[in-house]
Write a structure and sequence with these properties.
The complex is a heterodimer of chains A (344) and B (104). Chain A is built from 13 helices and no strands. Chain A has 344 residues and is mainly alpha-helical. Chain A folds into two domains: 71 residues; 251 residues, no CATH class. The longest helix of chain A is centred in the middle third of the chain and has 42 residues. The relative contact order of chain A is 0.09. Chain B has one domain: Orthogonal Bundle (Arc Repressor Mutant, subunit A). The N and C termini of chain B lie far apart (37 Å). The longest helix of chain B is centred in the last third of the chain and has 21 residues. Chain B has 104 residues and is mainly α. Chain B is built from four helices and two strands; from the N terminus they run H-H-H-E-E-H. Classes of the chains: A mainly alpha (344), B mainly alpha (104).
Chain lengths: 344, 104
């Protein structure tokens, strides 16, 4: 016969540790069962019901507090191999991000030559200083691409063998979410200003443009609110395709900000499903990133050529990434699979 | 730099009340503590407080024999430890001293 609190007790065995269950949940359930039996003996239906309601509420509260405490303990307690794996992943992520950033930035600014006899500066020193300045202006837009890439490659070097645990996966997702919040600030405000400053300096030097004159902003120099304003203006003027273009651009930029979450989510799906080793996961991470960014850059074409709604075109990168991960995850496990615990 | 001093045991208002009730009645269940507190303890949080106090060594607990007639889980009885009693007395003494000295 089922007694009151039995289901919550079974739930507690799933979500709480043995120690927490014995210390917090068991006494609460035992008191409820005892109180319920005493209430039933009185024959009062109302008292039985109120006892049951109050008891269930109190156990649910204890269960929530206990589960949060256990989650906190589990999150803060890392095994040495998990800690070592996480540090390895962080190192790989930092090195990859730095290398990819340099790879993007250096060729972009190396083509400029600003040798000039202006001021008292040595011409080559001035040339170098301006290039460094331009490189710094390119950093925000480059980091929006390279940080998610570094994160997903670092994760590929972490999630294998004994380190392929739920705890590491949750930590990676949390890190990706934090990363996305930072990227939102970057893409929404920092990148447009840095891109505009880059244009201003580069064009001023190239074409002897008056540095104090403000240049008109291009599409990559628009903040999110500026994109929305342009969209509204285009609608007001009755331009047929421009509002759709800006709407797609808006979703495209949002898609850049959240890139880390679908990429990490997709790699976690593959890692836990296929149980691949380090190199296969690295290949999967590179493949997923390529799919994501190719889909991202083609979203305006998807909108223009195929007439896809802007929201669909803008988020097509996340959808393509999820699709690719789903296909790989559903593939039968091959020879590269390694067995390991999936839960800490 | 001075070496870090060991922190003295602390007793919150709820913990103090629980020790007081347990010193009065020797052994009580969680729900009995809630009833005896006259609304100052809530049944949703009393078990968490009791668990924390057990970790600190202020109280100890034991499981009662399982009920024979209706079945179900055995209830847990709590009692104050000697350490809990000492901390409670010291805490009350300090509070009384502070009240005398700084009362306005």
């Amino acid at each position: 016969m089922s007694r009151p609190g039995d289901r919550l007790h079974r739930l507690a065995t799933r979500v709480c540790s043995e120690r927490t269950r014995r210390r917090l949940i068991d006494p609460a359930v035992a008191d409820l069962q005892s109180e319920f039996a005493a209430a039933r003996r009185t024959g009062s239906r109302w008292r039985t019901l109120t006892t049951l309601g109050a008891g269930y509420l109190s156990i649910a509260k204890v269960l929530a507090i206990a589960a949060c405490g256990d989650l906190r303990d589990e999150t803060l307690t890392w095994r040495p191999e998990e800690r070592a794996g996480a540090w390895r992943g962080i190192r790989v992520a930092v090195v990859t991000t730095a290398a990819a950033t340099l790879l993007f930035v250096v060729p972009s600014v190396s083509g400029f030559h600003f040798e000039t006899a202006a001021l008292d500066w040595h011409p080559r020193l001035l040339d170098f200083a301006v290039r460094v300045l331009l490189g710094l202006y390119l950093l925000p837009s480059t980091l929006a691409l390279t940080i998610p890439l570094g994160l997903v490659l670092g994760l590929a070097w972490t999630l294998h063998g004994a380190v392929r645990t739920r705890k590491v996966g949750v930590a990676a997702l949390a890190l990706a979410a934090v990363c996305s919040m930072g990227m939102f600030v970057n893409v929404a405000w920092l990148t447009p200003e840095a891109n505009q400053a880059f244009r201003q300096v580069a064009v001023a030097r190239f074409f002897h443009w008056d540095a104090d004159r403000a240049m008109a902003r291009g599409d990559n120099e628009l903040t999110l609110s500026a994109i929305l304003t342009r969209m509204e203006q285009a609608r007001t003027f009755g331009l047929p395709h421009t509002p759709r273009f800006y709407e797609t651009l808006y979703y495209q930029k949002l898609s850049v900000t959240v890139a880390a979450v679908p990429l990490v989510g997709a790699l976690l799906t593959i890692a836990f499903r296929q149980r691949w080793g380090r190199w296969r996961l690295t290949a999967a991470a590179i493949g997923l990133s390529s799919v994501y960014y190719v889909a991202l850059t083609s979203s305006t074409y998807i909108n223009a050529v195929f007439g896809a709604p802007p929201i669909v075109a803008g988020w097509s990168a996340a959808a393509a990434c999820a699709l690719a991960a789903g296909v790989i995850a559903l593939m039968p496990r091959g020879r590269g699979a390694t067995s390991s615990p999936s839960r800490a | 730099m001075s070496p870090r001093r060991a922190q003295p045991p602390r007793l919150s208002a709820k913990e103090s009340l629980i020790v007081e009730l347990l010193l009065r009645d020797t052994e009580l269940y969680g729900l009995q503590l809630v009833a005896a507190s006259r609304g100052r303890l809530k049944r949703g949080t009393v078990y968490v407080t009791l668990g924390r106090m057990e970790d600190k060594g202020f109280i100890t607990s034991r499981e009662e024999a399982p009920p024979a007639d209706e079945g179900g889980l055995p209830r847990r009885l709590y009692r104050a430890t000697a350490f809990g009693r000492h901390v409670y007395e010291a805490w009350n003494m300090a509070a009384a001293h502070m009240a005398l000295r700084y009362a306005r």
